[in-house]
Amino acid sequence: MAGNKRADIKKGLKVKVVQKKDQRSGNLTEGVVKRILTNSATHPHGIKVMLEDGRVGRVKEIIE
User: Fold this and answer.
1) What is the pLDDT along the chain (64 residues), one digit of tens a residue?
2) Buried/exposed 19-49: b ≥16 CB within 10 Å, e otherwise
3) HEC readout, 12-53
4) What is the rounded distance in angstroms from the CA atom of residue 13 to the CA atom of residue 63?
5) What CATH fold (topology level) applies to the domain 6-62?
6) Which residues contact 48 (CB under 8 A, 6 or more apart)?
């Protein structure tokens, strides 16, 4: 599932995000959502979140 809708993303959810430094390469980082940083209901590039380890990125994939 894509991470474009804020309603689909909850704290504690396992996701794959793309960090700012990896936007060109498209490398995805796996982690667990600690905080949701995007305020709007949707975002075309993915909802921005902070992972439990402190890394920040936009959700590209929600892991079931």
Assistant:
1) 788 999 999 999 999 999 999 999 999 999 999 999 999 999 999 999 999 999 999 999 999 7
2) eeeeeeeeebbebebbebebeeeebeebbbb
3) CCEEEEECHHHCCCCCCEEEEEEEECCCCCECCCCCEEEECC
4) 8
5) SH3 type barrels. (2.30.30)
6) 36, 37, 38, 56, 57, 58, 59
User: Is the four-CA dihedral 40, 11, 33, 52 of positive or negative sign?
Assistant: positive
- The domain segmentation of the chain, as residue ranges, is 6-62
* Total-model pTM: 0.90
- Look up tokens 């982690």; give the residue: 31
